[in-house]
Amino acid sequence: MHSVLINHIQKFVSLEPSEVTLLESSLNLSQIKKKEHVLQEGQVCNAMYFIIKGCFRQYIINNKGTEQTLQFGIESWWITDYLSFHNTTQSHFYIQAVENSDIIAIDKIVLESLLIQIPKLERYFRIVSQKTFGAAQMRIKFLFTMSAEERYNHFKNQNPEFVQRVPQYMLASYLDFSAEFMSKIRAGKV
Amino acid sequence: MHSVLINHIQKFVSLEPSEVTLLESSLNLSQIKKKEHVLQEGQVCNAMYFIIKGCFRQYIINNKGTEQTLQFGIESWWITDYLSFHNTTQSHFYIQAVENSDIIAIDKIVLESLLIQIPKLERYFRIVSQKTFGAAQMRIKFLFTMSAEERYNHFKNQNPEFVQRVPQYMLASYLDFSAEFMSKIRAGKV
After folding, report:
1. What is the pTM of this model?
2. Cβ–Cβ of B141/A60 closer than 8 Å?
3. CB A131 within 8 A of CB B86
4. Share of chain A above pLDDT 90, in %
5. Nearest to B138 among A83, A134, A135 (CB)
6. pLDDT of B62 over the 90 cut
């Protein structure tokens, strides 16, 4: 199961066999049940989560008291609250399993030790987090420049399987649909 | 002038004197006039920009044809389009000087060479970009959870000087104000 992460790392940096062995012995797989949280608002985020199998989402409770999904993560994605992680401050976010999932949770202290022993991992995490940030910036652009129908169709075209995997109400909040547009989708009119 | 960047790097990693010398000889300072762009939509983003003095913003043209500011950067901030930078794809964003500014623009090829010669810079850029990403996530949370007045007051409290530095219409789009609330601010009613 570690091979999914090792392979992902090797897309960005080359690991020596001894480094692969070190990673395999340092990392633990966790099974997280659907709807279980790995982070809740108010907690300090002390880990980064790599998704081996399944799906997670990062969400907030908005000012209407409803859940607003800001990010999804599926296989081979990292998910965490970077600000809470780096500043050791209380998180403003929830991170929850959308499906029964297998993840590798790397604790901050373990990560720091791995980064010292395998400095090239700095490069891996730099590139991966910069690309994730870039993707998040694109999502914001889509929210401001596309109509709800365009956002839905664009997302469906880019992630055809994913649209089937998550509850529609989560997708609706992620793509910031109005209740009206959501009804159209539910009625199969889009 | 390079010392601002060197000092910023040294907040995260320790540099040897030879590494400081290498950085000083590799980096060039550019003066960018107010309203000048370092990146326009459709161009490939080939550099990262560190602001020594002045202010930049990243913006898009929204579906009403108006400029929507997504991010500001001031002294000791990095600004770039990470997705375009990493994937060598056309950018969807504009990056523009809001004031006459001094920046260090690091070209992708120069950066790659510096990262090979000073691998600990990987750590610096990892932490800085993860923190920037974390701050961007917080901005999204504020957009969804605070009223326009709360967002304005929160931003003003956190950045009292900054509110005076940028045109109100840029701040309004960054904080996603309605025209109505903008008029209240203009009339001094907030």
Report:
1. 0.93
2. yes
3. yes
4. 68
5. A83
6. no
Going from N- to C-terminal start, the domains of chain A cover 2-119
Superfamily in which the B2-119 domain is placed by CATH: Jelly Rolls (2.60.120.10)
Cβ <8 Å between A134 and B60:
no
Contacts of B87 in chain A (CB under 8 A): 131, 134
Q: In 3D, which of B133, B134, B161, B163 has the Cα closest to residue B151?
A: B163
How far is the alpha carbon of B60 from chain A, nearest alpha carbon, in Å? 7
Q: How far is CA A152 from CA A55, A160, B136, B150, in A?
A: 19, 11, 23, 30
Scan residues 67-96 of A and list those with Cβ closer than 8 Å to B: 68, 70, 81-87, 92-93
Does A63 sit within 8 Å of B145, measured CB to CB? yes
pLDDT of A87 reads: 96
Q: What SS3 state is found at A77?
A: coil
Token duo for residue B63 = 């579906």
Write down the pLDDT at residue A184: 78
Taking residues A106-123, what's their average pLDDT?
97
ipTM value greater than 0.90: yes
pLDDT, one tens digit per residue, over B68-111 is 999 999 999 999 999 999 999 999 999 999 999 999 999 999 99
CA distance B30 to chain A (A): 24
To which H or E segment does residue B52 belong? strand B47-53
The two three-digit tokens of residue B113, written as one number: 């060479």
Contact B82, A130 (CB under 8 A): yes
CB B96 within 8 A of CB B42: no
Contact state of A134 with B84 under an 8 Å Cβ cutoff: yes
Buried b (16+ CB within 10 A) or exposed e, B177-189: beeebbeebeeee
Residues of B in contact with A123 (CB under 8 A): 115, 119, 122, 126
